[in-house]
Amino acid sequence: MLPLVSIPWLDPEYLLSAFGPWAVLGVCLLVFAETGLLVGFLFPGDTLLIITGILAATNPGALGLPIWLIAILISVAAFAGGELGYLIGHKVGPRIFERRESGLFSVANVNRTNAFFERFGPMAVIIARFVPVIRTFAPIMAGVGHMSYRRYSLFNAIGALVWGMGITLLGFGIGHIPPIADFVSSYIDLILLAAVLATVIPIAIHYLHGVHQAKKAEQGPGAERPDVSAAPHDA
């Protein structure tokens, strides 16, 4: 493994050594946080699930549980996180987003996300599972937009099952293909670094764009360049 990323909670070997027999619980907690808490977008969920699947295939005894049970537990954690995210959005979301007009927290973002839900309907809940960052904010936005709780929970369950089991089993399958498994194991730090950058860079760009738009809105039409043609001329 290339020692390029020194972030312990992104290193699967660190997770195994730190959590020991509770490694699966640690993975589930990270999955729960990714979809249930606003800070969850910091966690590369897809990569974590793939790595978990690979570890289950290459070292079956390391995680202490069969792959089918690991995949189910991850799906349950993803579902629970999505439910918490919805409740947060429903209860306190409007107050948070209506008071801020820049960056990620703004009425404009609420309107754009609501339009996304209106375009794709409840399927948006499933689609969002496979999109980093959106996976974190979609449950909260569904709550802010007051999507039907029963409908949301149904599609949240479907999305959590498809994503949690699908990505984990994908990693498990990769683990049974030695060349690919060896490549992932050798360059896992690079893969994790790319995953982090792919997550952080769009957030930073979006935030800076939001700040710029907010400043332009605050300046208003009065900030436009004055019309010099209307100035009085010397006799």
From TrEMBL:
Key word Zinc present in the record?
A: no
* Chief localization: membrane
Q: Name one GO cellular component term.
A: plasma membrane
Q: Where is the signal peptide?
A: none
Membrane-spanning residues where? 14-32, 37-57, 63-89, 154-175, 187-208
- Could you tell me which residue ranges the VTT domain spans? 43-171
> What does the similarity note say?
Belongs to the DedA family.
What protein name is recorded for this chain? Membrane-associated protein
Native species:
Frigoribacterium faeni
